[in-house]
Specification:
With 373 residues, the protein is an alpha+beta fold. The protein has helices at 12-27, 48-53, 62-77, 84-115, 129-148, 153-176, 196-203, 210-241, 247-258, 266-275, 282-293, 299-302, 329-337, 352-362; strands at 32-36, 44-47, 308-311, 317-320, 340-343, 367-370. It has three domains: 12-151, Butyryl-CoA Dehydrogenase, subunit A, domain 3; 210-300; 303-370, no CATH class. Helix 1 (12-27) runs antiparallel to helix 5, helix 4 (84-115) packs antiparallel against helix 5 (129-148) and helix 8 packs parallel to helix 11 (282-293).
Length: 373
């Protein structure tokens, strides 16, 4: 029987708050946005509405103003009859306002200095309460709109943060394709596109021999990957599958060593490599990277840590978080049916292999398997 789940109802308390947040975000344009003190004479101070209508070249406010206007109109529409589509449209409007605010911050330095109106070089600290209030209110409206739809707002915050982190990479890519000379321009989208920069990068080696640098990096990365993967798998398999004296000591020692930052041994490693004549060799990089990468064996057993999936019969699967959960009727059922217990996942603070040893002692008639082993 096909039972399609109905969309959950809107959270009315948050729906009623959305028009207020949208109105406050729009009203923040009436607050001071820019104040640049002058060493002599009058300071340069402007409100957001002045920068938007009259002094357009100082800050790029059009995208965030469009987002704020749409959010205000959609927020007012919620005062009548609220629907899921209107709230979704409001999510998009608040998202546009947030992205417009981020765009303003990223371009503020270039546009403000290029305007020629600043009494001194522009700094981010010259932005006033109106700018920060708008950003906070837009982000709060975005989160509230998603919560009104009963959607996880955490993903939105993480997505916004990811976009902020990815914008510099996007800027580097666009700059590399820019036909104009210079890296700093008062605009983001290039007026001309070209691949000449990449051609010169790989052919003009008079000043920078980039092809040689690239091949060196590729060689070191490939060899290090092969060596580290081999060593890590060997160490992880030995410490996970075999039981031998001092095994626990090795595990604890690896944990203690991993707690020390790598730069503490930097000078000592350099002197050792210099003493054996490898200070200026690519082999030294491979040795250092491979040696430090061996401690990655701690991540391999974690991939085999609990949850425990107990298959009692064809239709009954139980997820067990720790050995105390395998008690009573479950133990009796497992013994009677000879069920399989499969380590099927990972978790923190409890070793799946230690748990497996414990359960093997408690359930002698049960067959155990390790997923992927």
């Amino acid at each position: 029987m096909n039972t399609a789940s109905k969309p959950r109802a809107l959270r009315r308390d948050l729906v009623h708050a959305l028009p207020v947040i949208a109105a406050l975000a729009a009203l923040s344009l009436l607050l001071p946005w820019l104040h640049v003190p002058a060493p002599e004479g009058a300071d340069f101070a402007r409100k957001g509405i002045n920068l938007l209508l009259f002094d357009r070249g100082i800050l790029r406010l059009v995208p965030l103003a469009v987002g704020a206007a749409l959010a205000l109109l959609l927020g007012l529409s919620l005062l009548g009859r609220a629907s899921r589509w209107s709230v979704r449209a409001l999510v998009a409007a608040f998202a546009l306002a947030v992205m417009g605010g981020i765009y303003t911050l990223l371009t503020a330095k270039v546009t403000a200095d290029a305007s020629g109106l600043m009494p001194q070089p522009f700094l981010i600290k010259h932005l006033q309460i109106g700018c920060w209030a708008f950003l906070l209110l837009s982000l709060a409206g975005l989160v509230a709109a998603l919560m009104a739809l009963r959607q996880p707002a955490t993903y939105v915050v993480l997505t916004a943060m990811a976009v902020v982190w990815l914008l510099p990479i996007l800027w580097l890519l666009i700059t590399s394709l820019r036909a104009e000379a210079g890296a700093y321009t008062p605009y983001i989208i290039p007026k001309g596109w070209t691949l000449e920069n990449y051609t010169r990068l790989f052919t003009d080696t008079a000043q920078f021999n980039f092809p040689r640098w690239y091949l060196n990096t590729l060689w070191v990365a490939v060899i290090t990957c092969l060596v580290t993967t081999t060593l890590v798998l060997m160490v992880a398999y030995t410490l996970s599958r075999l039981r031998f004296p001092s095994r626990r000591t090795f595990l604890n020692l690896g944990l203690v060593i991993a707690m020390f930052p790598g730069f503490m041994s930097m000078i000592a490693v350099y002197h050792i490599l210099k003493a054996v004549g490898l200070a200026k060799s690519l082999v030294s990089l491979i040795l250092v990277y491979s040696g430090s990468g061996v401690l990655g064996y701690r991540n391999e057993p974690e991939a085999l840590e609990y949850l425990l999936k107990c298959s009692v019969d064809h239709g009954a699967d139980m997820f067990v978080k720790k050995s105390d959960d395998v008690t009573g009727a479950i133990e009796a059922e497992a013994r009677a049916r000879g069920a399989r217990i499969v380590v099927a996942g990972r978790a923190a603070n409890y070793s799946g292999w230690d748990l497996l040893d414990e359960l093997q002692g408690r359930l002698p008639g049960v067959r155990f398997e390790i997923l992927g082993a």
